[in-house]
Automatic annotation (TrEMBL):
This is tRNA (guanine-N(7)-)-methyltransferase. GO terms for molecular function: tRNA (guanine(46)-N7)-methyltransferase activity. Pathway: tRNA modification; N(7)-methylguanine-tRNA biosynthesis. Residues 13-22 have a biased composition (Basic and acidic residues). Belongs to the class I-like SAM-binding methyltransferase superfamily. TrmB family. Substrate binds at K155, D187, T225, R226, Y227, E228. It catalyses: guanosine(46) in tRNA + S-adenosyl-L-methionine = N(7)-methylguanosine(46) in tRNA + S-adenosyl-L-homocysteine. It comes from Methylobacterium gregans.
Length: 249
């Protein structure tokens, strides 16, 4: 195979100036006007599911799921969009607690609908920027972290806004258990290359791909997303990257 066949394309600019160390949410918090049922779910369901970050100390994520008596693991999805991937994973793995972080209100209400209609008891929601949550999680507390189709901020001057940075990857590696995985998907080649380049500089993460199909094919048990379907229909081929947390010394 050629080098292009072996690794995702790392396009021009992946070594541009690194992002600012303080992460922040960029973008709208609310889009389309909410319907009455959505407003009711926000008022009635979200308070019980909301993840509140303590001002001091750490937050043990396992304590967020008292209704899951046989809790096996805790996962985190950063920026869950419409929530279809998170809801599918929660339904398929009722013994795994899943925290979804999404500051966009319209995405939150879509996930709340799935939680309500499917009776999902293993979902918790952080409806603010995920940075503060990551900072308060203890070391080695998560088994899996997802970042799926994040905003690519394609213009060069905007790239400092991308969530993936050396600092954010270090935080993700810190909260992952040994052998835990970070899964990233994007239909933007530049962002895939950007992520791969930064992960290569993270000593605690190892890219798990052994052949090209490992990053061309979706992750096992992948339910797909509406955004992904639109990207494929538009002719953009997604890239799926998985990195495993190396064993601590």
């Amino acid at each position: 195979m050629s080098g292009r066949d072996q690794v995702p394309p790392a396009q021009e600019g992946v070594h541009d100036a690194e992002e600012a160390p303080e992460r922040a949410f960029f973008g709208r918090r609310k889009g389309k006007r909410l319907r009455d049922a959505q407003e009711r779910r926000l008022a009635e369901l979200l308070p019980a599911l909301r993840v509140t970050v303590p001002s001091v100390g750490t937050l043990d994520p396992a304590t967020l799921f008292p209704a899951v008596s046989d809790l096996r693991e805790v996962w985190l999805e950063i920026g869950f969009g419409g929530g279809e991937h998170l809801a599918a994973q929660a339904a398929a793995h009722p013994d795994i607690g899943i925290i979804g972080a999404e500051p966009f209100v319209n995405g939150v209400v879509k996930l709340l609908r799935a939680v309500d209609e499917q009776g999902l008891r293993n979902v918790r929601i952080r409806d603010e920027d995920v940075t503060a949550l990551l900072a308060r999680l203890p070391d080695a507390c998560l088994s899996r972290v997802y970042l799926l189709y994040p905003d690519p901020w394609p213009k060069r001057r905007q790239r400092k806004r991308r969530f993936v940075s050396e600092g954010s990857l270090a935080e993700i590696a810190r909260v992952l258990k040994d052998g835990g995985v970070f899964r990233f998907a994007s239909d933007i080649d530049d962002y895939a290359g950007w992520t791969l380049a930064r992960a290569a500089r993270c000593p605690d993460l190892a890219w798990t791909a052994a052949r090209a199909d490992d990053w061309r094919q979706p992750f096992p048990g992948w339910p797909g997303t509406r955004y992904e379907a639109k990207a494929i229909a538009a002719g953009r081929r997604p890239t799926y990257l998985e990195f495993a947390r190396r064993a601590r010394g």
